[in-house]
Amino acid sequence: MTLVDTTVLIDLVQDDPHWAAWSEAQLFEAQKRGALYINAVAYAELVPAFDDMEALDSFLKLAKISVKEISRPTAYLAGTAFLRYRRLKGTKTGVLADFFIGAQAQTEAWTILTRDAARYKTYFPKVRLICP
Prior knowledge:
alpha/beta, Rossmann fold, five-stranded parallel beta sheet, 7 helices, 5 strands
């Protein structure tokens, strides 16, 4: 099972000239290995890239990605990892979504497909990553 980071999907939606080909190839390979998921936080991050919920849901269906709910243990792990980040003088405030993605992957023992691996490697070192 693979949890797909929002960056990979945004690459496809925006047809990023540098990353779209890599993201598409990695998504295709991950589909061969098993089910693909995002969580509700990643879903929310994708909203600005679509005109409405139907368009977003159609994109996810086409990409064969399901939305997986976040468990209480996942939310707790995300909160503790974010607290550690802040205690280490992390200054970015818009990164909580990454902690939910990392925590869910760790809780579910899933892989993360991402091109932004540094935070996952630091705060969720047990999680297997597919990254450039």
